TrEMBL record, chain B:
Organism: Streptomyces luteogriseus
Protein name (Swiss-Prot/TrEMBL): Branched-chain amino acid transport system permease protein
GO CC list: plasma membrane
GO biological process: D-alanine transmembrane transport; L-alanine transport; L-isoleucine import across plasma membrane
PANTHER family, per the entry: BRANCHED-CHAIN AMINO ACID TRANSPORT SYSTEM PERMEASE PROTEIN LIVH, HIGH-AFFINITY BRANCHED-CHAIN AMINO ACID TRANSPORT SYSTEM PERMEASE PROTEIN LIVH
């Protein structure tokens, strides 16, 4: 009984102590006791796109665990605060507000969807807090609305470790025309920022290469019946279907397409690159293709430990698409905190606003070897690592078939 | 290639599915004037009931000829239990309350059912694979799958059985009487509570048939599948004349065909390129509904019911 009581008391005291540090977050560096800072994560953790969203959350979690274990920033412990945006822009915005309002948060990782990022950027910019997306690919997020003619960075707090759709769409067009030798494509998108942008770039680049776009159409997210669309594609004589959007719809489209006897591959972007796509579409997905940013995670020597840890912990979700990028994004924030401490004589700045702005500067100056290669950002906040990979479904799993950089026409 | 026959077949199949779900809306509305907005979710739980039978009860490698009837049975049991349970615990306590109360309960129930499935059914937070009937047949220029044949045969059998039941059986006639005037029916010795339960049960059964057909046709099911299908089926019920069971089927088929043809051909009309295609299908479906309501507010087969308005 005595033992039990003392254990409970100690536990309660420890909890209270932790709690008080969390709330203020500015007692750093005072002889041994650790300061705890929070790194925010925003991604779809339930419902649509959650497979890839959870990969982001757990990728970031492993980075935080590594930082704490290896004492990357002496005297500082990090923890994660993961919020679910359900792939909805409005939820993403309120999550961004919650993260900036929490005075222990030094930076944020996420979101997954470009459309969600659009509503979050301003919130983070107002709080002068660094936001690094491991997954957004819409060009205008870093290069402004008129990115095709006049590049201009809209928010200096926004960064990404993913490359843009301009490169992704072009890479896909090049592979479809030269690699697969497909000359007639039907292009479909889901009208979202990401999907429509990707399909538009594919369409333009494919035509420039000499390919023929035999038809275009749009679908709504949440649609289930694509009978009418499939009949149109069948009748168009296309030998490839390019789809800009997520796996939720594309898995259904490819299944209905193949059930109708149209044996042409569906080619999509990184939004489709998830094991769920293959699970949902079954055998129909055989031979389908997707581009994804970077090089295959399992071919990177640095990512081996990461993948092992991910599997050992039994995390749900898919590290394949963005887990390693989320790890690198989180590491960039942690390293920026360390840089701020180093510049301040080994002590983390006590004022959170000061620290946040120093983290933004630190992230901009990032220069280290991450899991996915060299991590550094250009003047727009885009990653300098522009590599892309085409994957194809082979015997029920994604296999990488070609890695390279896009060749813009 | 002439795509019209194929598109008509696509529309007819989609419409039959809407029609089967719409029966549930229409029967319940016909008898208690309640729009059971949770009906789409009853359809969804039917699909998960069938999925449970296939993946967790039947041994691996059961032939589909045996599996489909058992899945139908499993789906029907779940959907009927949920439909009847909803009536007993969510709607009956509110009978006699202002119309808005049960409507809000229905919306709450639909969200609750979605969340229960999402949180407690293994792997249901994303699309779950469902066994398919994917063998195809070419009939002229039309390609249809075994799943399509299942759907169309099931829809015809269900409608025929319901028509005979309502016209010929004692309970069916009691149902018509209750629909006409519940108070008088009660005075004539009809147990209206029992009739209402039967209406919910039949609606649940039809939704389960549609759900199994849906799973077999599209190859996967998820916890959100009931929302859009339920909304479309409700539209079909209103289009056909809410309260009329033949109207529900007709409304479903008209809606399915209209939607399919609109998404297939409207963008081929000069000047309409921007208003066609798959993503506009819902817009045209609801335009059709508005037009019917403007010129025939009681719906295609509905009757003018002055005393109930």
């Amino acid at each position: 009984m005595v033992i039990l009581t003392s254990v409970l008391t100690t536990g309660a005291l420890t909890l209270t102590a932790c709690g008080s540090r969390d709330d203020s977050g500015d007692k750093g560096g005072d002889g041994g006791s650790d300061t705890t800072f929070t790194i925010g994560v925003d991604a779809p953790l339930s419902g649509e796109n959650s497979t890839t969203g959870l990969g982001i959350q757990y990728g970031a979690q492993i980075a935080v665990d590594d930082a704490n274990k290896n004492n990357w920033v002496p005297g500082v412990k990090f923890k994660l605060k993961a919020l679910d945006d359900k792939a909805q822009p409005a939820t993403g915005q309120s999550n961004a507000t919650a993260l900036t309002g929490d005075k222990t948060v030094v930076g944020a990782v996420g979101p997954l969807n470009s459309g969600v990022a659009q509503t979050m950027q301003q919130v983070f910019a107002s709080a002068n807090m660094a936001q690094i997306s491991p997954a957004n690919t819409a060009p205008e997020l870093t290069q402004g609305k008129n990115w095709q003619t006049d590049k201009k960075r809209p928010f200096k707090t926004y960064f990404r470790t993913a490359t843009t759709d301009e490169l992704q769409g072009s890479f896909a067009a090049g592979y479809a025309y030269n690699g697969l030798k497909k000359k007639k494509a039907f292009v479909v998108d889901d009208k979202q920022t990401y999907g429509a942008g990707l399909a538009k770039i594919f369409n333009e680049q494919y035509k420039k290469l000499g390919g023929k776009v035999v038809g275009t159409d749009h679908v709504n997210t949440g649609d289930k019946d694509f009978g009418s669309l499939v009949t149109k594609i069948k009748n168009s004589g296309a030998d490839l279907l390019y789809y800009g959007g997520q796996y939720d719809e594309s898995a259904l489209i490819t299944k209905q397409l193949k059930d109708a006897g149209v044996k042409i591959p569906l080619f999509g972007g990184d939004g489709m690159f998830a094991s769920t796509y293959i699970e949902a579409a079954g055998k129909s997905s055989e031979g389908d293709l997707a581009t994804a940013i970077g090089v295959p995670a399992d071919t990177l020597p640095a990512a081996k430990t990461f993948i092992q840890t991910y599997k050992d912990k039994g995390y749900k979700g898919d590290y394949g698409a963005y887990g390693a990028y989320a790890y690198d994004a989180t590491t960039a924030i942690i390293k920026a905190v360390k840089a701020a401490a180093d510049a301040n004589g080994g002590k983390v700045p006590t004022d959170i606003n000061d620290l946040r702005s120093k983290v933004v500067d630190g992230v901009q100056k990032s220069d280290f070897e991450g899991l996915t290669g060299k991590i550094s950002f250009d003047q727009y906040g885009d990653t300098t690592n522009k590599q892309l990979t085409v994957y194809q479904v082979e015997k029920g799993a994604w296999k990488d078939v070609e890695t390279g950089t896009a060749d813009l026409k | 290639m002439n795509t019209l026959p194929q598109q008509l077949a696509n529309g007819l199949l989609l419409g039959s599915m809407y029609g089967l779900i719409a029966i549930g809306y229409t029967m319940v509305y016909g008898i208690v004037q309640l729009i059971n907005f949770a009906h789409g979710e009853i359809f969804m739980t039917g699909a998960f009931g069938a999925l449970t039978v296939y993946f967790y009860i039947l041994p691996d490698g059961t032939s589909m000829a045996l599996a489909v009837p058992l899945m139908l049975l499993g789906g029907a049991i779940v959907a009927i239990l949920i439909a009847v349970g909803a009536e007993r615990f969510a709607y009956r306590p509110l009978r006699g309350a202002p119309r808005l109360a049960p409507l809000i309960t229905a919306i709450g129930l639909s969200l609750a059912l979605q969340e229960v499935v999402r949180n407690f059914y293994p792997g249901a937070d994303r699309a779950r694979a469902f066994p398919g009937l994917d063998a195809t047949h070419d009939i002229g220029s039309v390609t249809i799958k075994d799943a399509d044949i299942f759907l169309i045969v099931a829809a015809i059998l269900c409608m025929a059985a319901l028509a005979i039941f309502v016209r010929r059986s004692r309970t069916g006639r009691a149902m018509q009487a209750t629909a006409q005037d519940p108070d008088t029916a009660q005075l004539m010795g009809i147990d209206t509570n029992r009739i209402i339960v039967i209406a919910f049960a039949i609606g649940g059964f039809f939704a389960a048939v549609a759900a199994v057909a849906y799973g077999l046709k599209y190859g996967n099911v998820d916890y959100r599948m009931g929302f859009l299908m339920g909304l479309k089926a409700f539209t079909a019920a209103v289009l056909g004349g809410i309260g009329n069971i033949y109207g529900a089927m007709l409304g479903g088929i008209v809606l399915g065909i209209a939607e399919t043809l609109a998404s297939a051909y409207i963008d081929e009309i000069p000047g309409m390129q921007q208003l066609g295609g798959q993503s506009w299908a819902n817009v045209w479906a609801f335009c059709l509904l508005i037009l019917v309501l403007l010129f025939r507010p009681q719906g295609l087969l509905g009757e003018r019911v002055a005393d109930r308005a």
